[in-house]
Predict the structure.
Amino acid sequence: MKEKVYAYLKTIPKGKVTTYGRIAAGLGNIHYAQAVGNILHDNPDPSRYPCHRVVNSKGKVAEHYAFGGGAAQRKRLEAEGIVFDENGTVNLKKYGV
């Protein structure tokens, strides 16, 4: 399953995000969302597998983002042109894939 999750990450374009649930659904079972999160936490190469482009179902970054916390994840997304609202949320209709 790890290989499928990492392959999925490579399909998320720069400047876009997806959710744990959407990845899980893409792998065939929405109930895999938590497993997807665990796999992303162990990402062996974040520059190759852009796990920073994955947010929760509400459009929020992961406060326990494995590579520097939520602020680091947000900074990486903003560098790609993603805008957060006043509540720290990404508009999934605009930026989601």
In short: The chain has a mean pLDDT of 93.
